[in-house]
Amino acid sequence: MNIKTKLTLVIGVLVAMIVLLVSLSIVNLQILTATEPNSPAAGPGLQRALLWISSIGGFCIVIGIFMLTVFPAYFNKPIKKIIDGIKDIANHNYDCRLNLESHEFVEVSENFNRMAKRLSDYHSSTLAQIKAAKNYMETIINSVKEPIIGLNNELTILFINDEALNVLNLKREEVLQKPAQEISMRNDLLRRLIRELMDSQTENRASKAEPLKIYADNKESYFQMKCMQINKQSNNINEGYVIMLKNITEFKELDSAKTTFISTISHELKTPISAIMMSLQLLEDDRVGDLNEEQKELAQSIQDNSERLLNITGELLNMTQVESGKLQLKPRITKPIELIEYAIKANRVQAEKFNIQIEVQYPENKIGKLFVDSEKIAWVLTNLLSNAIRYSPENGRIIIGARQTEDNHIEMYVRDFGKGIDPRYHQSIFDHYFRVPGTKVQGSGLGLSISKDFVEAHGGTLTVESEIGKGSCFTLRLKS
């Protein structure tokens, strides 16, 4: 018997009882009406009729109360069990099962238990796959010999390999599922990593910080930090970060050895080169004899190459000073026009040789002064102007000038009208030893890189604007 049948039966019983009660009442009233009102038998008959009516009415009321009390509880109990079971399933309690005794809920109970079993099997298999994948990932991460740290979007540490724990001098149970910012309060290295991570995300750039100097493996080691952002492929929403530390100790040691070697060789070369140039000056003196035209050409060639070699050794020495951190600035108050005039004077002979006209653009209004190492900045302008002359056509012109910006900076620029630089190489030309492919003009490839280092040491910038066939403009920007 299903629920619908039982409800129909209950309603039918209640209706039948009400009809019976009404019928008896009508019959008794008819009997009382037919009986003489003043008859002695009317009193007891009336009393019996009222008694019967009262008894049957009371019985109906009791039955009704009984049904209202028992039947809702009878139906609510299994429904409540079903609701509780659904809540357990929603809370991932897939071991929940229903055992309803009511015949009408047996099918519901069986279907519910079948669903719970399937969910339990699926969850167990999925969980096993997740655990296996997690174990694979941990094995791979721990096999990497570089420190790796994984964080979610709230900077909670999700995973960390043994190398990172060793470098940070922490234990795994102290960091896993813990806020990195909280741990960094008592760990200087982690605090620096988190700060670099935040800076790289705020400035929307890859981290270009100086290598980290860390005492690891019983020696001083150098690590380069790399930050990667993990995004969802579907909507490109940030889900977390991965911090990797690349051990560059070996490269740092080789670079230091290279810098020391170049510095030593450059310094030692200056003495014989100076002796060669001194001998050439003596050879050109008339007191030691006249030179024929062929000998003069040979002497001039030796002098040109000696000067070029001397310039290269000077550039190498400047580079080693920058790389070794021994670059010392001696700033003083300088007018921009003085630096420009120095660069023009240093390149006058070269400009006259190729018949290059140098134009100066300087504002009529008074501009601010610079507090810089005038020798270093003058060297930069001289190098830029020398490059402009070398890459300009004969009988061409070059513009050198200065201007003051609204944000209290002074910009000095050198513009040529040569063949220009391909935009692909605008960043590479500032790298050590780089030369634009196809360039025929000889050079060491160090001038622009050293110039940029000198400018950045003053807190300034050196940039280039260039188009093929329209020339180039190098701009040096410093705070006034």
Give a written overview of the molecule.
This protein is of the alpha+beta class. It has helices at residues 3-34, 42-90, 106-143, 162-168, 172-175, 180-184, 188-202, 249-283, 293-323, 336-346, 348-353, 374-390, 447-457; strands at 148-152, 157-160, 212-216, 219-231, 238-247, 332-334, 357-361, 370-372, 397-404, 409-416, 461-467, 471-479. The protein has three domains: 3-91; 144-249, 2-Layer Sandwich (Beta-Lactamase), CATH 3.30.450; 327-479, Histidine kinase-like ATPase, C-terminal domain (Heat Shock Protein 90), CATH 3.30.565.10. A hairpin with a 2-residue loop joins strand 3 and strand 4. Helix 8 packs antiparallel against helix 9 (293-323), helix 9 packs across helix 13 (447-457) and helix 10 (336-346) packs across helix 12 (374-390). The longest helix is centred in the first third of the chain and has 49 residues, at 42-90. The radius of gyration is 48 Å and the shape is elongated. The N and C termini lie far apart (97 Å).
**CATH architecture grouping of the largest domain:** 2-Layer Sandwich
What's the story with the biggest beta sheet?
Answer: 5 strands, antiparallel
Low-confidence stretches: none
Q: Give the proportion of residues in helices.
A: 40-55%
CATH fold category name of the largest domain = Heat Shock Protein 90
CATH class of the largest domain: Alpha Beta
Instruction: Tell me the number of strands.
Output: 12
CATH superfamily (homologous) name of the largest domain:
Histidine kinase-like ATPase, C-terminal domain
The N- to C-terminal Cα distance equals: 97 Å
Please state roughly what percent of the residues sit in beta strands, choosing from under 5%, 5-15%, 15-25%, 25-35%, 35-45% or over 45%. Answer: 15-25%
* SS content category: alpha+beta
Shape: elongated
Number of domains: 3
Q: What's the rounded overall pLDDT mean?
A: 77
- The sequence of SSEs as H and E is HHHEEHHHHEEEHHEHHEEHEEHEE
